[in-house]
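User: Can you help me understand a structure? I only have the sequence.
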Amino acid sequence: MPAASNLTEYLSTLPADRRDAFDGLMSAVAAVPVPPSNNSFIFLAGQTTHPEFDDAEAVFWKAVEQLQLRNAVSDGELPLVYWGFHSIDLLLRRRSNGILVTDRTVYLDDVGNSSAQSAIENVDPDSVRVAGESLEVGGASIGLAQIAGMLEPTTAVDAAAYLSAVVTAVQVAGATVAGNGSAASAEVTQTVEQLVLASRMGSDFRLPARPKDAKALSKLSAKWNLPADEVLLVSLSSATFAGVYGIAITNKAVYSKDLMEPLFRTALEDVEGFVWEAETKMFRVSNDHAAPTHPAITDDNRDYAANLLHDLARAAARE
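Assistant: Let's start by predicting it. Here is the structure, written out as tokens:
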């Protein structure tokens, strides 16, 4: 599935309950007054008219692409508001420098200096403050000296107050809006196939609906001797001369196998998650089941992959 090129396309890929959640959350965020001193720095999701810029929608979406979509550990987050500006990196590329608030995460990127992300339920609104020449959120900060010429006397303190109010609004509204929830607690409503196709690792997983993948899945099923009464829904696997290795999910269990190692199985109802263990370099699925990693999983996307695999197991239990 091609990556969305704007907010409208992105929202169209989400389930109806997530789109409804977006509407509810944006109503709460829009109710927070934008201080005039920050008109040049605040961009709301879906904002078609902006007091300063004609390309506000493009500015917002670039921030989503650079701060959220590259770093999110789960799919389907709802971007709500961006506070920031543009910087030029060492390769002369325009980068979003600022703070993006979604329904699940607060992302911060001070290009060339520091970046951070925090689950929004863990962000203390009082931690959003001005500290010297920086705007802080939960201990991470954006340097303001680089835009000193653009700041009015109250811009920094007004920004802190505004972002603090936004975090509070999202925390309150997020607890009551239908279809909303943290990445860990949100109910999975999509099918295994839908989750894979909507993910940024969609091409790495094998699905029965793809003819080429179906052949590979059939080989995996035979090599691993999977039960005939189980339906193989998805795998993250590779074949070598030494055999097939990776992770597979059926409608009843999670299976995994490393090269030259035995097959492990955990019933879907007993799956505790996919928790990375640095010492063994494996994912802990249950107390007696550690699954191998895969070349598609890197240091940069490991948390995302672990969350996706867990969501796939949860979705499989509903099929």
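Now, to help you interpret it: The chain has a mean pLDDT of 91. Helices lie at 7-12, 16-30, 56-69, 155-174, 192-198, 211-224, 302-316. Let me know which part you'd like to focus on.
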